[in-house]
Design goal:
The protein is of the alpha/beta class. Helix content is 29%, strand content 25%. It has three domains: 224 residues, FAD/NAD(P)-binding domain (3-Layer(bba) Sandwich), CATH 3.50.50.60; 110 residues, FAD/NAD(P)-binding domain, CATH 3.50.50.60; 105 residues, 2-Layer Sandwich (Enolase-like, domain 1). Strands 1, 2, 3, 4, 5, 6 and 17 form a seven-stranded mixed β-sheet that branches. Strands 8-15-9-10-11 form a five-stranded parallel β-sheet. Helix 1 runs parallel beside helix 4, helix 3 packs antiparallel against helix 4 and helix 3 runs parallel beside helix 5. The termini are far apart. 44% of the residues are buried. Its EC number is 1.8.1.4. Belongs to the class-I pyridine nucleotide-disulfide oxidoreductase family. It is found in: Cytoplasm. Its cofactor is FAD.
């Protein structure tokens, strides 16, 4: 007998599992289909983010930063630490344990909320029927009133550097190194490339990042990107901009990479090469040809602002649709769609999705950049505050970077908050909360911020927008 559900979700990543839990909480009979297996051959929930993305990379970033601090940051505190060494397999094992706990946690949440887990590959057929193909090849058909497509994304492959997960790896392989490569190449100076490059650089690898674009972090505010390039270069990352990879050759456990830049043809040899040039939607065998859902030529599913596809009752969320490929964006889309299915008029504010790069210092932003606003012809006032003037940052010996607040020159409404520095992600989130409620720079300036905190830097930057900063000299109005 065919199983029937109010909602069937294909994919249990941050979009899919959140959508399934929310739908179940709203009283809808819900199933979630997942095929991803861990190394033991067991179904692992949480998608790329929990298994081979956001969470494991943060575990390695934190471990490597602690090692770096112990090696070169303790002496200033009067702490003597001699002969500090890194046990890479132990670091990787810790990361794996965190992943196991979190994926197991999603399983527990499914049980607690009454979500039915269907193991296998999900495919949307005509008439909102979904075919589930198990690992052994057996199939079953389930019927749904509503279907949510949340199949996620995977790393982009490039012909000049084919991944073998041994010498040339993608972001997944870069989380599994059992020793520190002497020379490490990274293709792509985006979020993933910079984070993974940072991990292995801190542990002693000589890291070269090869980026095809001439501009560093073009999505970030130019002032912040400039500061980031300066800081990461100082930390030892060799960042080659305007460098296009033309080929690679693996020989004797090393890879030689050919690329062209402003100086002509170049060649570098590495022990490991990470390919981190972006991600693409996973839509292979997701949609039957007669299911009616439309896709573009790049494999993204067409949806409206509420994530509805061209078929009534079928939705798509996360990395398979337009917009930033971010876990938190996918999760909130999942909540919105579940609520709309349940009859609520939920909306999502796509203008205020924060972006974070978890290097050290962190780089984060929300809203618009100064160059975007300039291009739109919007007159703005800008306030900045350096962490070098923050008592809390000095106490922590973490004074690099700044907070930047951009406000509309006529209304004083905050249009962007950009941070490079300690706890940048947390400070930007404070900005996002204020911006969601239409805050002005003056509003932020009038609030009481506890002292001494890093968040005072946001307070001072907001005051500086209108020339009222207390703890730095204000720029004179022209």
């Amino acid at each position: 007998m065919t199983q029937k559900f109010d909602v069937v979700v294909i994919g249990a990543g941050p979009g899919g599992y959140v959508a399934a839990i929310k739908a179940a909480q709203l009283g809808l009979k819900t199933a979630c289909i997942e095929k991803y297996q861990d190394k033991d051959g067991k179904i692992a929930l949480g998608g790329t983010c929990l298994n081979v993305g956001c969470i494991p990379s943060k575990a390695l970033l934190d471990s490597s930063w602690k090692y770096h601090e112990a090696q070169s940051g303790f002496a200033i505190h009067g702490i003597e630490a001699k002969g500090v060494s890194i046990d890479v397999p132990a670091m990787i094992a810790r990361k794996a344990n965190i992943v196991k706990n979190l994926t197991g946690g999603v399983s527990t949440l499914f049980k607690a909320n009454g979500v039915t887990l269907l193991e296998g590959h999900g495919k949307l057929l005509a008439g909102k029927q979904v075919e589930v193909t198990a690992q052994d090849g057996t199939t079953q058909i389930v019927e749904a009133e509503n279907v949510i497509l949340a199949s996620g994304s995977k790393p982009v492959d490039i012909p000049p550097a084919p991944v073998d997960q041994d010498v040339i790896v993608d972001s997944t392989g870069a989380l599994e190194f059992q020793s520190v490569p002497k020379k490490l190449g990274v293709i792509g100076a985006g979020v993933i490339g910079l984070e993974l490059g940072s991990v292995w650089a801190r542990l002693g690898a000589e890291v070269t990042v090869i980026e095809a674009l001439e501009k560093f972090l073009p999505a970030a505010d130019e002032q912040i990107a400039k500061e980031a390039l300066k800081t990461l270069t100082k930390q030892g990352l060799k960042i080659r901009l305007g460098a296009r990879v033309t080929g690679s050759e693996v020989k004797k456990k090393q890879v030689t990479v050919n690329f062209t830049d402003a100086e002509g043809e170049q060649m570098l040899t590495f022990d490991k090469l990470i390919v981190a040039v972006g991600r693409r939607p996973v839509t292979t065998d997701l949609l039957a040809s007669d299911c009616g859902v439309d896709m573009d030529e790049r494999g993204f599913i067409y949806v409206n602002d509420q994530c509805a596809t061209s078929v009534p009752g079928v939705y798509a969320i996360g990395d398979v649709v337009r917009g930033a490929m971010l876990a938190h964006k996918a999760s909130e889309e999942g909540v919105m769609v579940a609520e709309r299915i349940a009859g609520h008029k939920a909306q999502m504010n796509y203008d205020l999705i924060p972006s974070v790069i978890y290097t050290h210092p962190e780089i984060a932003w929300v809203g618009k950049t100064e160059q975007q606003l300039k291009a739109e012809g919007v007159a703005v006032n800008v306030g900045t505050f350096p962490f070098a003037a923050s008592g809390r940052a000095m106490a922590a010996n973490d004074t690099g970077g700044m907070v930047k607040v951009i406000a509309d020159a006529s209304s004083d409404r905050v249009l962007g908050v950009h941070v490079i520095g300690p706890s940048a992600a947390e400070l930007v989130q404070q900005g996002a909360i204020g911006m969601e409620f239409g805050t002005s720079a003056e509003d932020l300036g009038m609030m009481v911020f506890s002292h001494p905190t890093l968040s005072e830097a946001l307070h001072e930057a907001a005051l500086a927008v209108n020339g009222h900063a207390i703890h730095i000299a204000n720029r004179k109005k022209r």
